[in-house]
């Protein structure tokens, strides 16, 4: 298991009580329908370098701030 989130990491996060499976990828590999988000996106940028158990505030493009908890990195 990886210790921190990097480009290529597959992760499980919790947002507003919902569990999401995501992978942090480069811009050319983005596929939101399959959970592949860019490391340059607001969520991707906020999660890089973070560890399991951390709660991260993410400011979305629309200005809304959400809290996400990192459940697993693999």
From TrEMBL:
Database matches in Pfam families: GreA_GreB (PF01272)
Residue ranges of every copy of the Transcription elongation factor GreA/GreB C-terminal domain listed in the record: 2-73
InterPro entries membership: GreA/GreB_C_sf, TF_GreA/GreB_CS, Tscrpt_elong_fac_GreA/B_C, Tscrpt_elong_fac_GreA/B_fam
GO molecular function terms noted in the UniProt entry: DNA binding; RNA polymerase binding
Any single GO BP term: DNA-templated transcription elongation
Protein name from the UniProt record: Transcription elongation factor GreA/GreB C-terminal domain-containing protein
